[in-house]
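Thanks for the sequence, V.! I ran Putative stress response protein right away. Repeating your input here for the record:
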Amino acid sequence: MTKILVPTDFSSFAFSAAKAAVFIARQTKATIYLLHVVNAPADWSGLSAQTKKKYPNIEIQINEAETQLKKVAADKLFKGCKVKTYVIGGLIYDRIAAFAQSNNMDMIAIGAHGADEKDRLFIGSTTQRVIRTATCPVLSVKKNTEIKSIKKILFTSNFEENVSDAVRTVEKLASKTKAGVDFLYINTPGNFADTETAEKRMAKYASKSRTVKFNTFIYNESDVSKGILSFMERSKPDLVALITHGRRGQPAYHMSVTDSLLLHAGVPVLSFVLGKK
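Predicted structure:
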């Protein structure tokens, strides 16, 4: 992991994401890319300088954001980290995902809202859209969440699809942070697998790594989201990772699970979208 993108709207939500990104960057020696997107016409980057002059307010916002972002980058939080800053215009979620893809980001760390947080800025729904459209893993972090250590990572999936890339990313992060990895299979009445089948699915991806210990668990519950949250109460992970899908996958099912975790989990959520390069 060498590049971590941190979109910011200068809110406390975004600052929490930045703190999480700094923790991971220090473990992995990654560079942090601070990005602010000024809401502008979708084709802003393709407009001529003459046409952009027709939007003086946007140009003013971009100039002001550049100054503010430099101040953020100079914060003591980033001491010892390599930080780069970028301010661009366009549709916010679209530009975040496009920037991550064009600059080959390894991860996006973004602020997320909890169920009890009503002062929504752009980060709320933007987070969900970024998760759907990003081609790299997205780490969603709620306000006031602080990662002091990562000793246990919970990875949940039905393990029916090829999750090798996601598991590899989690394993690398676990190795850097000296964490163990727990695989979790949630059995529900509508999608039930016998113990032998579930264990075989997980065993396929459990690495024989000398530096990372893998454990496997099967948990029975009436609902996937409820099962994950109930298991988390028992296992107390420092981070939870899961597979989600883009709009052409199975959004009605999988995004509801992701949304539920973003709202109710007390730890950062790392989501992977299958089938995106």
